[in-house]
Specification:
By secondary structure, the chain is an alpha/beta fold. It is built from 19 helices and 14 strands. The chain has a 7-stranded mixed beta sheet, sandwiched between helices. Strands 10-14-13 form a 3-stranded antiparallel beta sheet, covered by helices on one side. Helix 18 crosses helix 19. The radius of gyration is 27 Å and the shape is globular. The N and C termini lie far apart (about 80 Å). The relative contact order is 0.13.
Length: about 550
């Protein structure tokens, strides 16, 4: 009936429009409001000729321009999805429209830590629990017992009992569902051996919003600085720029495997203070992005002591804590290190970031994560809570995943053996891929690459010939971006120029993920090797 009425109404309107063209309506005559009419006909614009007078008016051309928007937005850059990736998207469309039109048959994305987009499969237990929570009606069906493991069914019931209305589509507490925070806190305590308070946890849509929250809290003006590693993940430089602060760089030592030297930290801190910059916090990424190093515990102790002495908030990016590939390194959280040194809530302000996007889970699209906030006064915590409240809450699926990641199946659970096999298979494959790519990069002329101790990336240094640097200057682009663009156009391999992460002036790098599936790695190595040889021959001095 509704379809019939709509059809009749469309016919009447079309007829009216045709009559209007033949007999224009006088000013005093009634007419259907243009906005309502255009809305109604929006699904039928292919056969209805809406008069120009009814078309939405475009804004004045000078209403919003790049020159009059917030200059902080213009200043902000995010190389991981920058120029090279945009070009890759265009080439992919070209391949789809005209197969065989390029010297390669597919784009190989090595630019971003997005595992499942490259074929990594999700962990079965995590997805079973999510499915059951999202559609609880199937929990009571007899078939469910044969399709889902007993512990995933039990876990889904436990989680649903903690959610208002047992509905994953409902808002939660602004810090996240209390029961899920309890599970995460228990997981942190099991990992570190020290208590964790669920009230210290703020569940977020991935780690990025948590970083933005802390930058909003700490940065008052350009006179406020944040100590950041160089190279760094561009989220930090972008967030500092958006909030109007000053990035105070400290350079990781490439010669010592991207080591962090306290002497350099102190030098950069003193230099910033001498220029009138109030340095508020120190960012540490461990394991490193884009550099892949894993900090030694002694080095972490030095960092904690430095922050305590200088009154700095320690911002610990620990989203790659599960990604360790070498036997002589182990992940230690900064929370564990600070507590092992005898420091508590009144001694140092520490914010630890975790995400469901990395590790062996790679659930980037689910947007789950958290920050654990310790060492702040009740008054400041109220302000952090207020900021969380403005966003109402993070998405419930991400909250559930964060709790599952930090509290996975245990020995004796039905899912445990499969979970262990899936986790081990992913991590061991990543380790092999990292080693294969590392060896391949080190075999190239003028390329040196530190070992991948952890995370998901390699950050090789490339000695570019003078002719290549001059060609880049002529093209008005950074030399490493020039190399990466040529690599993409010749091979379809997408990597990110080191200039997007920061690097010692006069050095050139690129970041390459280890995430393409193992059967793709030989093709990447072959294409890269062939391209690099031709590139060096073309621009040889």
């Amino acid at each position: 009936m509704r379809r019939f009425v709509n059809g009749r109404l469309r016919s009447l309107i079309v007829h009216s429009l045709q009559q209007t063209k033949q007999h224009p309506i006088r000013p005093h005559q009634h007419r259907t409001p243009p906005l309502l009419l255009s809305r109604f006909l929006s699904s039928s614009t292919s056969f209805v000729d809406v008069p120009n007078s009814m078309a939405d008016k475009s804004p004045h051309p000078d209403t919003v321009t790049v020159d009059n928007i917030n200059p902080k937005v213009v200043k902000c850059e995010y190389a991981v999805r920058g120029e090279i990736v945009i070009l890759a998207g265009k080439l992919q469309e070209q391949l789809k429209a005209n197969p065989g039109s390029l010297p390669f048959d597919e784009i190989l994305y090595c630019n971003i830590g997005n595992p499942q987009s490259l074929g990594q499969q999700p962990i079965t237990y995590f997805r079973e629990v999510l499915a059951l929570c999202d559609h609880p009606a199937i929990l009571d069906k007899s078939e469910t017992q044969g399709l889902f493991s007993a512990d995933s069914i039990e876990r889904a019931w436990e989680i649903l009992d903690q959610i208002p209305g047992r509905a994953t589509g409902a808002y939660s507490h602004s810090q996240g569902i209390k029961g899920l925070r309890d599970s995460i806190a228990a997981g942190i305590e099991a990992r570190d051996g020290y208590p964790s308070d669920p009230n210290d946890l703020f569940l977020t849509d991935g780690a990025s919003p948590a970083v933005h929250t802390m930058m909003t809290l700490l940065i008052r003006s350009e006179k406020d600085g944040i100590l950041c590693p160089i190279p760094q993940y561009p989220l930090y430089s972008a967030s500092i720029a958006l909030h109007g602060g000053t990035l105070v760089p400290y350079y990781l030592d490439e010669a010592s495997g991207w080591g962090l030297e306290i002497s350099d930290l102190r030098k950069q801190l003193e230099d910033a203070r001498s220029k009138g910059v109030s340095v508020r916090a120190l960012v540490v990424i461990n394991p490193g992005n884009p550099t892949g190093q894993v900090l030694a515990e002694d080095n972490q102790r030095q960092i904690v002591e430095f922050c305590k002495q200088e009154g700095l908030v320690l911002l610990a990016d620990e989203v790659y804590q599960e990604n360790i590939y070498v036997p002589d390194k182990e992940f230690h959280s900064f929370k564990k290190v600070t507590r092992s040194m005898g420091y508590g809530e009144n001694d140092i302000a520490l914010v630890s970031f975790q995400s469901v996007s990395k590790g062996y889970y790679g659930e980037c699209g689910k947007r789950g994560g958290y920050m654990e906030v310790t060492g702040f006064s009740p008054e400041v915590r109220e302000q952090i809570y207020k900021m969380a409240s403005v966003n109402l809450c993070s998405n419930i699926s991400g909250q559930i995943l964060a709790s599952l990641v930090m509290s996975p199946p245990k020995v004796g659970d039905e899912s445990y053996e499969l979970y262990l096999a899936e986790k081990g298979g992913i991590l061991s494959s990543l380790k092999r891929r990292a080693k294969t790519l590392e060896d391949a990069l080190n075999s190239l002329e003028g390329v040196t690459c530190n070992r991948a101790e952890g995370a998901m990336y390699l950050f090789p240094r490339i000695e570019l010939p003078r002719k290549a640097i001059h060609a880049a200057e002529a093209a008005k682009t950074a030399p490493d971006a020039f190399y990466c663009k040529r690599l993409l156009n010749a091979t379809g391999i997408v990597v990110v120029p080191g200039s997007g992460f920061g690097q010692v002036p006069g050095t050139w790098h690129f970041r390459c993920t280890i995430l393409p599936q193992e059967d793709k790695i030989p093709a990447i190595v072959d294409r890269l090797t062939e391209f690099h040889k031709k590139f060096m021959d073309e621009f040889r001095d």
